[in-house]
């Protein structure tokens, strides 16, 4: 019970509610989960292309039995609050925008705050950060950026699991052979220039108390945290890219071995199963159908982008 410390928000956490947040709704499952994927600014905006979502995140969630709603940037807090009550979880993807001032960062901050408040009330709502998304989560939890440069743009690595990973929610249902592969084969794809070093992570009381570190990695010189899960909230992050193994082919270092593909699926299934514990729903069928990603068409961008396909938005 002592693991909570949310510096950036002023409300006090009623300790008695913590475990109900993580456990209470677990009995009732929502087998039609809808997960929000956050958009982000494009590098050079043009008509019809102000923001995007890489299609691999959508396929990733769909492959494990979820539907996806794009969460647009630059919307009001009121709009996000309404959408929050309709979604069963949110994924903050990787990317290249600012983790403090972009539309992506602002939306992530609102969803993070709403998720903390809801989970404390026993209203289960998972939050996932991949790569930039993990970095954004560390900023939201610690109240500051602790990023250090690492030589990790385009390398596949095995995970150095911590002792604590054995008790993790994320990996506890993974098959033993897959855990052995993850620990010994370079099947997690890293595409980041920045990381939170293990030293900085452990040196920050807010991060250390909030998240259990499940794995670390090193670029040969600097050790950084690569997988985290919050102790008392369904909040998770990987510095690596589980979605790329099965769905991205643009770079030679992306692993596609059987164990790599299995990793994509088990990671997706974990998040989707978390979302099944959320009972949020859209107020009407029309609103649900209008919000789904099926209303948008992905564009083939693999010729000149790190992503095979992207959804562009106005
Ligand atoms: C979002 O708002 C920022 C200003 O806050 C602006 O620079 C940016 O172009 C907007 N992006 C989109 C996609 O509307
Ligand atoms: C970065 O890592 C690559 C291997 O992934 C290595 O070839 C390169 O020399 C490293 N660069 C530096 C500056 O350490
Ligand atoms: C794994 O992490 C432990 C604890 O930080 C460290 O002592 C060990 O050297 C790491 N192993 C590898 C292969 O990086």
From TrEMBL:
Family annotation (SUPFAM superfamilies): Class I glutamine amidotransferase-like
GO BP of this protein: tetrahydrofolylpolyglutamate metabolic process
Protein's organism: Silurus meridionalis (Southern catfish)
InterPro entries: Class_I_gatase-like, Pept_C26_g-glut_hydrolase, Peptidase_C26
Subcellular location, record wording: Secreted, Extracellular space
Listed name of the protein: folate gamma-glutamyl hydrolase
Family: Belongs to the peptidase C26 family.
Hydrolase as UniProt keyword: yes
Superkingdom field: Eukaryota
Entry EC number(s): 3.4.19.9
Record keywords: Hydrolase, Secreted, Signal
Lineage, broadest ranks: Eukaryota, Metazoa, Chordata, Craniata, Vertebrata
N-terminal signal peptide: 1-26
Gene Ontology molecular function, alphabetical: gamma-glutamyl-peptidase activity
One GO cellular component term: vacuole
Catalysed reaction, written as an equation: (6S)-5,6,7,8-tetrahydrofolyl-(gamma-L-Glu)(n) + (n-1) H2O = (6S)-5,6,7,8-tetrahydrofolate + (n-1) L-glutamate
């Amino acid at each position: 019970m002592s693991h909570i410390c949310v510096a950036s928000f002023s409300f006090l956490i009623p300790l008695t509610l913590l475990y109900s947040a993580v456990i209470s709704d677990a009995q009732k499952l929502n087998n039609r989960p809808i997960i929000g994927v956050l958009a982000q600014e494009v590098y050079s905006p043009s008509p019809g292309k102000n923001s995007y979502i890489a299609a691999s995140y959508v396929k990733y969630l769909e492959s494990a039995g979820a539907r996806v709603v794009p969460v647009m940037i630059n919307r009001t807090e009121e709009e996000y609050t309404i959408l929050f009550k309709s979604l069963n979880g949110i994924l903050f993807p990787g990317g290249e925008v600012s983790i403090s001032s972009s539309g992506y960062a602002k939306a992530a901050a609102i969803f993070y705050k709403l998720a903390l408040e809801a989970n404390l009330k026993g209203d289960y709502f998972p939050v996932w950060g991949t790569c930039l998304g993990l970095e954004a989560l560390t900023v939201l939890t610690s109240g500051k950026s602790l990023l250090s440069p690492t030589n990790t743009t385009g390398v596949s690595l095995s995970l150095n699991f911590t002792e604590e990973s054995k008790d993790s929610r994320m990996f506890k249902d993974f098959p033993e052979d897959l855990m052995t592969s993850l620990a010994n084969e370079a099947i997690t794809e890293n595409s980041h220039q920045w990381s939170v070093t293990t030293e900085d992570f452990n040196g920050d009381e807010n991060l250390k108390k909030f998240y259990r570190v499940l794995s670390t990695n090193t670029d040969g010189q600097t050790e950084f945290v690569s997988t985290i899960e919050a102790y008392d909230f369904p909040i998770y992050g990987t510095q690596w890219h589980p979605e790329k193994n099965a769905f991205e082919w643009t770079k030679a270092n992306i692993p596609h071995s059987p164990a790599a593909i299995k990793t994509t699926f088990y990671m997706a299934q974990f998040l989707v199963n978390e979302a099944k514990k959320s009972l949020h729903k859209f107020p009407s069928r029309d609103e649900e159908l209008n919000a789904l990603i099926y209303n948008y068409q992905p564009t083939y961008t693999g010729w000149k982008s790190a992503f095979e396909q992207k959804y562009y938005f106005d």
